[in-house]
Amino acid sequence: MSQTTGQVTEQPLFDGNHSFGSITRLISDIPQQETPKWWYIAFGISNLLMGLLIAMLVYLIWEGTGVWGLNNPVGWGWAIVNFVWWVGIGHAGTLISAILFLFRQGWRTAINRFAEAMTIFAVMCAGIFPAVHVGRIWVIYYVFPLPNSMQMWPNFSSPLLWDVFAVGTYFTVSTLFWFVGLVPDLATMRDKVKGKLAKSLYGFFALGWTGGNRSWQNYEKAYMLLAGLATPLVLSVHTIVSFDFAVSVIPGWHTTIFPPYFVAGAIFSGFAMVMTLMLIARKIYGLEDIMNIKVIEKMNIIILVTGWMVGFAYIMEFFIAWYSGVEYEKFAFINRAFGPYAWAYWIMMTCNVITPNFFWFKRFRTSITMSFILSIIVNIGMWFERFVITVTSLAQDFVPAAWGYYSPTWVDILTYVGTFGLFFTFFLLFLRFLPMVAIAEVKMELPQAKVEYYANGNSDKDSANN
Amino acid sequence: MAQLFPKWTNKLPKQVQLLSILGLTAVVFFFWYFGSPKYLEVGYAPVQPIPFSHQLHAGQLGLDCRYCHGSVEISSAAGVPSTQTCMTCHEYIATDSEKLQPLRDSWESGLPVEWIRVHKLPEHSYFNHSVHVNVGIGCATCHGRIDHMEVVMKSEPMSMGWCLDCHNHPEQYIRPVEEVFNMAYEQPPNQYEFGKMLVAKKNVAGPIYCNACHR
Q1: In Å, how far is B164's CA from the nearest CA of chain A?
Q2: ipTM
């Protein structure tokens, strides 16, 4: 085999020297095991929090939006902050599953299923806020172009309506993409589980998958098409969310930098959230071989890069405020940093601009403790970013006599806490009943799935035991 | 391995798709058609405390609308006639009619007759009768042939879309101001040109911004 001596052998992506069969067993065994005790406890707590969310929403709808801390001049408070925050978190899932797929980043297979599930549940949490924020939720169907005797039509020149369609499309495509990716693994589960009900349920959603050539061809075509559809959505959704602000004429909002700045921020926070959840899940479920330190390091690099994009935008906003010569714009930014909300501004700057710099060093990038702590700090920082943007510009706008100071009420706070209940209720159900790693896709990235592996004289590890 | 599902389940995805599209369309159609004022409200004719006949008063006797609805030209409300208005005639005519007993009771007690409102606009919409009659929108255009009605009936849906039809195209409905109270008025064959001329003459521009009616 002298002709192979010039070849550089790639390091395998995943640890543990796994075979096709052992990957299947590692992942598909998790839903088949008995439900662990901690799961019941976590699920119980999540359900309680979700009950809290429902109670808060019922109270809000019963009493009206006055129970929130909103009042003139601040008409947008925590509801919009939480909406943008949750939608932003969702973005990592789509980036990992669609963009990294098109760029052939094999390591994405370790986390894509997981991150996509997070996307869907995060968008569900996000959608609640603008929906209840309209006040009269029983006429929410006004946002859809439906025939009616009022001859009313949605106002297509309003970015808030674009938002409805952007987030709606995003949710639909993400769910479809997630589901299509699940089909081969659902078929694996169908063939593995023993119970009749479980078999039928997995089988129903596996859509009659045979694992034959035609199934795979259709699957790969559909997956590629959906990846192509989802890719522009990663950019468009948060662009349109940023239009909610940028299209208005409030100083501090009316800037052209908003779309790229929001998208970078969304990916920044999304990756941090995936990191937080992944570090817990890999430990509990023993998936360290797949969600290994190489994956963590790559994710940390993305957090570092997007963190600096966000930091650059923060600095650029100040530069443009000065360079534009508009005194209102200048005031808005000086007020952000040194006004009544300076505390929030400096929390944001510390969490988002300073902390990611630890990841310049390989020692911190590859440290699990550091990754975990910093990912949480980043998410706190990104929540404050949205708070700073939303509230500071409204609280001190053009007329000083109308200035005010916004504080949330207990309903604001408990609603936000409650959305975590909704998120984790669904996430725990996902962890319990669905294969949390894309089994089929991970196998495609194993060394033995590549031709070079056999050219080097290896043989199929599975042929012995499978 | 035995088959998990019978063969007919192969058709399921297509059936579900078809049914959900049809189902959604049916729901939208249901609310659009059966929920509209055109379906729900046209034909509303409540029994009034006194069986007052517009057919007799406005039709056979030829009373002008403004004899009873006196503020229609100067106010937003056309006005429901007071007991005193009725009694200008009924102090002398049909004084022992049993049907008019509630009117005489009202005359003695000073409490108004409790007429039931037929044309009820929502409180969040502002409507002004005088603006409409003074530019040439006839009574019959919105209220129908009242002079033919034994019991007053709502003859038009009065939905927002119905208002906007005229606000967008007033030339299709406008008439000369002197014909406003003529119940039997018929549109000329060249209504479009004639209407355009009247619209230009009266400088009619039915507002279609929200604030015009929702103040």
Answers
A1: 8
A2: 0.76
Q: Is the peptide bond before B170 cis (omega within 30 degrees of 0)?
A: no
> Nearest chain A Cα to B10, which residue?
A208
Residue whose C-alpha is closest to residue A406's, from A322, A341, A333: A341
Q: Which residues contact A271 (CB under 8 A, 6 or more apart)?
A: A92, A299, A302, A303, A306, A375
Rounded to an integer, what distance in angstroms lies between the CA atom of residue A286 and that of residue A349?
A: 36
Domain boundaries, chain B: 40-80+115-213
Q: Is residue A216 within 8 Å of residue A259, measured between CB atoms? A: no
Beta bridge partners of B162: none
Q: Which pLDDT tens digit goes with each residue over A410-444? A: 999 999 999 999 999 999 999 999 999 999 999 98
Cβ neighbours of residue A130 under 8 Å, at least 6 residues apart? Answer: A79, A80, A83, A160, A163, A164, A167
Task: Take residue A327 and report the two structure tokens written for it.
Answer: 């005194």
Q: What is the pLDDT of residues A93-108, one digit of tens each?
A: 888 888 899 998 889 9
* Rg of chain A in Å (alpha carbons): 24
Residues of B with CB below 8 A from A190's CB?
A: 4
- Selected for mutation to probe chain B from A149, A151, A155, A201 (highest B CB count within 10 Å) is A149
Residue pair A137/A64 in contact (Cβ under 8 Å)? The answer is no
The Cα–Cα gap between A51 and A73 comes to 32
Q: How would DSSP label each residue in A294-337? A: HHHHHHHHHHHHHHHHHHHHHHHHHHHHHHH--HHHHHHHHHHH
pLDDT in tens, B38-97: 999 999 999 999 999 999 999 999 999 999 999 999 999 999 999 999 999 999 998 889
Return the closest-CA partner of residue B131 out of B142, B144, B123, B122.
B142
pLDDT band per the 50, 70, 90 thresholds, residue A81:
very high
Q: Which of A165, A163, A207 is nearest to A186 (CA)?
A: A207
**What whole-number distance in Å separates Cα of residue A430 and Cα of residue A426?**
6
Do A259 and A242 touch, CB atoms closer than 8 A?
yes
Q: Give yes or no for a contact between A89 and A428, defined as CB atoms under 8 angstroms apart.
A: no
Our CA dihedral for A445, A451, A452, A458, rounded to 10 degrees, sits at: 90
Closest CA relative to residue A404, chosen from A333, A327, A340, A320: A340
State the count of interchain CB pairs (< 8 A) between A and B: 36
> How much is the average pLDDT of A71-97?
91
With contact defined as beta carbons under 8 Å apart, do A161 and A143 qualify?
A: yes
A264 alpha carbon, distance to own chain's centre? 12
Please tell me the distance from the alpha carbon of residue A114 to that of residue A95, in angstroms, as a whole number: 13
Residues for chain B: how many in total?
215
A71 phi, psi to nearest 5 deg = -165, 165
Give Cα separations from A121 to A93, A171, A223, A427 (angstroms): 11, 9, 21, 7
Cα of A244 to nearest chain B Cα, Å: 22
| Amino acid of residue A283 | K
Q: Where are the alpha helices (DSSP H) in A4-111?
A: 20-32, 37-63, 78-94, 100-102
Query: CA-nearest residue of chain A to B4?
Result: A200
